[in-house]
Amino acid sequence: MKVTIDRVIRLEGEIFVDFSTDFGAAVAVWSGDLPTVGEIHDVELDVMERIVWGGSAHCALSNVYSIQIENGSIKLTGRIISIEDGTAAVDVAGSLILIEIVGFSGNTPVFVDLEIKKIALFSTGV
């Protein structure tokens, strides 16, 4: 996933970045060398919590990829393309992320809204 670094914040030993993409913006923990505002990075996105269907995950209201801050959480809309042993592969505008999900028993592919408290970005170096 391509992101642009919009702001860098050091807080309690962690580096946080405000970032933007072609489909929205959010904040994440940054893993790696200190980025610079304005840089564009190819990153992997890591959801740092277990997702519960019917709690922090629901069928999406629209079939449009997005990421934004809403009510103090990160709202990510993507498409579950496969699920096996409680791990879902989620397509987010052409990038894949893996999430641990509990309670999903629907058919794939399906657009979902995920409500996430914390994500991390890892630069791929590409």
What keyword list fits this structure?
single chain; 126 residues; mainly beta; 7-stranded mixed β-sheet; 5-stranded mixed barrel; globular
Description:
Strand 1 (2-11) and strand 2 form a beta hairpin. The chain contains no helices and 12 strands. The protein has one domain. The mean pLDDT is 95. With 126 residues, it is mainly beta. 0% of the residues lie in helices and 65% in strands. The termini are close together. It has strands at residues 2-11, 14-21, 24-31, 40-47, 51-52, 57-59, 66-70, 73-84, 87-92, 95-102, 110-116, 119-123. The strands form 2 sheets. Strands 5, 6, 7, 8, 9, 10 and 11 form a 7-stranded mixed sheet that branches. Strands 1-2-3-12-4 form a 5-stranded mixed beta barrel.
Q: Quick one: overall form?
A: globular
The biggest beta sheet is recorded as: 7 strands, mixed
**In percent terms, what proportion of residues is strand?**
over 45%
Oligomer: single chain
Q: Please count the helical segments.
A: 0
Low-confidence sequence ranges: none
Strand and helix order: EEEEEEEEEEEE
Q: What is the straight-line distance between the termini?
A: 10 Å
Tally of extended strands? 12
